[in-house]
Specification:
The protein is an alpha+beta fold. It contains 22 helices and 34 strands. The N terminus is likely disordered.
């Protein structure tokens, strides 16, 4: 039996582990300097002025702001020299502050303190193991007793370093994370009594006074303190047995929870490069700036697509044994009783639901409710992509080896137009080879935030290292069905989407500032990339509407580069491979390779009148709408291994992409890809330094799609 002294000693030791993540995050944020040059003389209220002018509502939150230290800790420990969150929110900038009321703060302290007390008592009684103890960090219900580190944690959960009006956002995650690197989910629900529709944050905190604009951002008043889970993704799932009892059991049975235990690459964090400036003569020569930044961190995040128990029951699956029987029908009986074997049917079922990046049901302006990569920064997907006349899809690898999941926003189908779909089938599944088997496993809909709020009260989707997304059908993988239906189409990836690290570390579509719009990606940072030359440099350039690029961003190699990327897994078959980029005079001459073998002769990525004539480019607008002539020009270009850019995005100045030869596709050739790994390589064969190997997007197109005259490939 534990006595109180034992418990306190254990708690102090355990706190170093349980709170290390949140406290470390606090310290990371709270050691950033405030740029004194950004201070500004305001003519109206700042965020802090707004709060100070309403002490009857926000005095408790102001106290927390005063004790959340943002500046570097001084050597002498004198915190009077350190800037606080109040200082930060008084300066020039753009912030969204979710400000909890005094009542919300009081409730939070009471609830978190009581959880701590209850677990302390359970430890003493022997009814709770130390492993399951929850140290909330709140050891007193009195505001003045709240530690500075917890004040910092609370502030970071409530501040975004961009200004957002709810009126500009659709349901889903905010486009930017908070200062704690966590995404806040926005949805709406009508009050049962008054009928008034309120925005909710993280499914439980209501915005009761919204979109108050101040000089340095927006204040949103909320009635509950935001308190995201500090659990890892598997633990977050297992803690919600009221919705996922079957899933909580099979995740542990297969031991696939162990592959989702990582949070951050400590070696990179300790390398000395994280977040530092990178000085490059290439940048000065080509972009008129001489510095960019290393990624701030190398974090690991995951997504789980999970069927609630209520969905299993619709398919007459009432317990784990029922599910195992069905899995064996779908995946076979190899290693029948060894659920930890990657060949076991249940193991395959679970693995196909796990993705090695965090995917958000996003709420950004123009993002259209994508669960896919967020469109943020200065790039507006609705402005730079042509409306809703085509479906938008992306493709992600799963933890089931050599498999893809297709994620689609089907704008062209009125039945699913407002939804995010997994493995969306062509023509509603009528092309299925085995409709009896696949009818209930294609066109799987992801629960929207409104669905969750309405039918899953108190659901938590946001873990420390990932996201849960409930789905409305049973998701399985069938090679024949995927190859013959779901993936029997042109598949296009933005190059940046090949690498989970760029998504998981808020690099892709980073919120642009004039100081930080380029990231230097060092060798080894991307697991699916290899530098074959020590002279190689690789960059990610953040989204800009002024470029000639698909989705606004790009990857860019420089110097005498030689870089190789592992291509996404696709079903075994014969494919045409295409390389999308934008042409400029400072580009390189590149030799492409597939699996180490040259793909044709070196390609000049520069633009000039001579090369434009060589590829046969004629703007679509020159044909005055004559479809036959446009198609003939497309065929002529394709015969020369070139294609115009897709018409599904615009280029600099809002110009139609097929009218501008800067944006172009090069056809690498037709290749037979076996099941397994395949590598795409690009090598600079120019001797000059400071040339660019820009790479924008990549297409893998089944040969059957190209050779089927009854259904020609669209121009999207």
């Amino acid at each position: 039996m534990f006595n109180l002294k034992n418990i306190v000693e254990i708690i102090l030791d355990k706190s170093l582990v349980l709170l290390s993540v949140c406290v470390a995050l606090c310290c990371t944020c709270c050691t950033e300097e405030i740029d004194e040059s950004s201070r500004y003389t305001f003519t109206g209220e700042t965020v802090v002025d707004y709060l100070e002018n309403r002490p009857e509502t926000f005095s408790s939150f102001l106290h927390i702001l005063d004790h959340a230290y943002i500046g570097n800790t001084p050597a002498d420990g004198d915190f009077s020299k350190v800037a606080t969150a109040r200082n930060l929110l008084s300066t020039y900038g753009q912030y969204t502050c979710f400000a909890p009321t005094n009542a919300a703060v009081e409730k939070y302290l009471q609830v978190q303190y009581q959880k701590w007390v209850d677990d302390m008592q359970a430890l003493q009684d022997g009814t709770l193991s130390i492993k399951d103890f929850r140290d909330t960090g709140v050891h007193s219900p009195i505001l003045e007793d709240l530690s500075d580190s917890m004040c910092c944690e609370i502030v970071k959960n409530h501040v975004l370093e961009r200004a957002y009006m709810t009126i500009d956002l659709s349901e889903g995650a905010f486009p930017s994370p908070n200062m704690n690197d966590r995404y806040i989910t926005l949805t709406y629900i009508a009050d049962e009594v008054t009928g008034v529709v309120y925005p909710f944050l993280n499914y439980n905190s209501r915005i009761i006074d919204l979109d108050y604009e101040v000089e340095n951002g927006v204040v949103q008043t909320i009635d509950e303190v935001l308190n995201p889970s500090t659990a890892l993704l598997p633990d977050l799932l297992i803690s919600q047995t009221n919705y996922f009892e079957i899933w909580s059991k099979i995740l542990e049975m297969t031991e696939l929870d162990t592959i989702m235990q990582k949070v951050e690459d400590k070696k990179y964090a300790e390398s000395g490069f994280a977040g530092l400036q990178y000085h490059s003569p290439y940048l000065d020569a080509t972009m008129h700036k001489n510095t960019c930044y290393y990624p701030k961190a190398r974090k690991f995040k995951y997504t789980m697509l999970v069927e609630p128990d209520s969905i299993f029951k619709k398919y007459q699956i009432h317990d784990v044994s029922d599910l195992i029987k069905r899995c064996e029908e779908w995946y076979g009986t190899e290693d029948k009783d060894d659920y930890t074997s990657r060949e076991n049917a249940l193991n395959k079922f679970v693995a196909y639901h796990i993705i090695d990046r965090q995917l958000l049901y996003s709420s950004g302006t123009g993002s259209g409710g994508f669960i896919m990569e967020n469109y943020v920064g200065s790039y507006n997907s609705e402005e730079m992509m042509y409306g809703s006349s085509f479906d938008r899809s992306d493709y992600f690898e799963t933890m089931l080896p050599y498999t893809l999941i297709k994620v689609t926003r089907p704008f062209t189908n009125s039945d699913y137009k407002s939804d995010v779909m997994i493995n969306y089938a062509q023509e509603k599944g009528t092309m299925c080879f085995n409709t009896e088997k696949m009818y209930d496993h294609l066109n799987v809909r992801v629960y929207s935030p409104a669905d969750i709020l309405n039918c899953m009260p108190n659901f938590k989707d946001d873990a420390l290292n990932g996201r849960l997304h409930p789905i409305d059908k049973i998701l399985i993988y069938d090679e024949d069905e995927m190859a013959g239906n779901v993936l029997r189409e042109r598949m296009r990836w933005d190059f940046a989407s090949w690498f989970p690290e760029l998504t998981n570390n808020n690099i892709r579509w980073f919120n642009l500032t004039s100081q930080q719009d380029v990231f230097y990606i060092p060798d080894g940072y991307l697991e699916r990339a290899r530098f074959k030359s020590e002279d190689s440099e690789n960059y990610y350039l953040c989204a800009r509407s002024a470029w000639y690029n698909y989705q606004g961003d790009e990857m860019l190699a420089s110097e005498i580069f030689d870089i190789e990327y592992r291509m996404p897994y696709v079903p075994a078959g014969t494919y045409e491979l295409r390389f999308g980029y934008s042409r400029y005079p400072n580009r390189s001459v590149v030799q492409f390779y597939i699996d180490g073998k040259p793909a044709g002769i070196p390609v000049d990525l520069r633009n000039s009148t001579e090369t434009e004539n060589f590829i046969g480019f004629i703007p679509d607008s020159d044909f005055n709408g004559a479809e036959d002539a446009i198609a003939a020009n497309d065929k002529e270009m394709h015969n020369r291994n070139w294609m115009k850019a897709p018409d599904s995005f615009k280029v600099a100045g809002g110009k139609q992409s097929r009218d501008d030869s800067h944006s172009i596709r090069y056809v690498l050739g037709v290749f037979t890809l076996s099941k397994g790994e395949h590598w795409f390589r690009m090598k600079n064969v120019r001797s000059e330094k400071n040339t660019q190997g820009q790479h924008d997007y990549f297409e893998i197109v089944p040969k059957v799609v190209i050779s089927d005259p009854s259904k020609p490939e669209d121009r999207h």
